[in-house]
Amino acid sequence: MNAQRTLRRAISCAGIGLHSGNKVTLSLKPAAVDTGIRFRRADLGGLEVPATVEHVCGINHATGLSRDAVSVDTVEHLLAALVSLGIDNAVVELNSPEVPIMDGSAAPFIYLIHEAGIKTQSKARRYLKILRAMSLTHADKRIAVYPSDRFKVTYSISFDHPLLRHQARTMRVTEQSFVDEIAPARTFGFLKEVEMLRQQGLALGGSLENAIVIGDTGVLNNALRFEDEFVRHKILDLVGDMALVGHPIIGHLVAHRGGHALHTEFAARLLEDTEAWTLVEGPEPETADAIGIADAVRVAQ
Ligand SMILES: [Zn+2]
To answer: Catalytic: which of 233, 247, 252, 260?
Structure first.
């Protein structure tokens, strides 16, 4: 059985919201089986909003959730870290409406979850296994999911900019590959957009400490963490947004030029199309074919 997991103990950190610029304290707390991930506003008497696609509200530059009087913004990087480390049940408590941006990546949240420790629970986890292909296209933006034995993501981006004209990456997303290859990839934005965002009251907490800023000829930050850090961050965002379906996915997600609006609309449509998937208690065990010849030899010996 692939059992559900929660945190071993509660843990906190502090930071600022990327868009609001507000200081915020975030605590991650263990939760009972079948709780899912819930955001709790300590500053609003503990009102909660579950991290599910039916509660998606703002999707302009970040993914927000709301229910009644409660809202929480910029949930995607934290959700990506939680689900990639296999945390099914947790309460995320905040004293402000926006999750702290930290360094613009999911790495600080990975660190936090590892510090808290992970606890296996007594009930099986249910996965959403894709049975048939589904896609959604808006102009030049496209997202699709295909049946696959494992959770895989392909992402491609293209911009009219010399630095990141075209980047693409396909990977099998596992706990380890997410931690090593995706979690450290930071949010990015274009310098010429920053002023516009600020006029809209967004990116007020943004700085070179928490985002890659792209000027006309290069990045304003000293260095990139990966040559293709931009497309890796898009994978991070997609993993976080798709966490809103409420189950780990067994299937291959393929996205081109997506963003939070496309990701979350697709997550909602996927849940509605109940013939496209089924809930199962885990992926098929690895076969010799799937793990490759070298490993198969090792297994045989
Ligand atoms: Zn992001």
So the answer is: 260
**pLDDT of 241:** 97
Query: Ligand 1 center to residue 133 CA distance, Å?
Result: 26
Whether 77 is a known active-site residue: answer no
Arithmetic mean of pLDDT, 90-95: 98
Ligand 1 centroid vs 233 CA: distance in angstroms? Answer: 6
pLDDT (tens digit, 9 = 90+) per residue, 134-161?
999 999 999 999 999 999 999 999 988 8
pLDDT of 196 reads: 86
Expressed in angstroms and rounded, the spacing between residue 197 Cα and the centre of ligand 1 is 15
Q: How far is the CA of 232 from the centre of ligand 1 (A)?
A: 10
Q: Which residues contact 57 (CB under 8 A, 6 or more apart)?
A: 64, 65, 66, 71
Is 128 strand, coil or helix? strand
Long-range contacts of 131-138 (CB under 8 A, 24+ apart): 131/275, 131/276, 131/277, 131/278, 132/275, 132/276, 134/269, 134/270, 134/273, 134/276, 136/262, 136/265, 136/266, 136/269, 138/262
